[in-house]
Amino acid sequence: MTTYTVGRFSGPVRPAVVSTTSRERFAERARARRNLARRQVVGSAAAVVGVGALGWLLLVSPVLALDPTQVEVSGAGTVVAVDQVLAVVADRSGTPLPRLDTVRLRDEVLEVPGVREARVVRDWPHGLAVQLVSREPVAAVPEEAPDAGLVLLDEEGVQVGRADVAPDGLPVVDVPLGDQRTLAAVLSVLEQLPVDLLAQVGSVAARTQDTVTMQLRDGGARIDWGSADETPLKIAVLTALRSAPEAAGATVFDVSAPRMPITR
């Protein structure tokens, strides 16, 4: 058998040759990476500055500041003093609208006497729309002390004012002092009456919540209503009775049992 011996090559090794074109490409890629990094830094800085400027514009600057002269109040009715509502809003004068706490402002408006509900809406760029539901009086109740005048109540029994005599179109209510259930029954009936019928009611009396009686103005008929139950049906029956020829000249309309009404 023949044996071969393989020897190592121990001669000089030539270095790898890097072309000029390859070095230029490498340098170009490096510059591109540096430029991209610079652009990213500049873009991020510009975004931060832009956000800061926008925040200052919306939240600090007077560009969107509240101007009390551009506040519109609606729904004040006959009870709410509009100047008191405007005074509450004026405390926020100069506040940028995006920063304005409309919920807290609404709560403060609700504290104005006579306000039942309130809604505050931004009216860009400088105003507000304050939409109210006022507590309109539906009855006048004599004070406990003699000749002390009348307390004006809304349909929920909330006092909304006082008067020496009942305002036009407002019935005087006679119920036992401190009897809130009977008063609530009377107010419930009055609140549901059509406007034209309510305007004809001169007084209402009730000894209990089931004995509501109304007296029409100018010597008109008496209406025995009973309780506040089935008030819509009683309104329909009363309307039909008053328009029927057979009931002409009647001085009493008893609709306390609306399915068996009585006139006399």
From TrEMBL:
Transmembrane helix found in the keyword field: yes
Every POTRA domain range: 66-135
UniProt-listed InterPro entries: Cell_div_FtsQ/DivIB_C, FtsQ_DivIB, POTRA, POTRA_FtsQ_type
Subcellular location: Membrane
Keyword Membrane: yes
UniProt superkingdom: Bacteria
Keywords (A to Z) from UniProt: Cell cycle, Cell division, Cell membrane, Membrane, Transmembrane, Transmembrane helix
Transmembrane portions of the chain: 41-64
Pfam families according to UniProt: FtsQ_DivIB_C (PF03799), POTRA_1 (PF08478)
PANTHER family cross-referenced by the UniProt entry: CELL DIVISION PROTEIN DIVIB (PTHR37820), CELL DIVISION PROTEIN FTSQ (PTHR37820:SF1)
Protein name as catalogued: FtsQ-type POTRA domain-containing protein
Species for this entry: Cellulomonas xiejunii
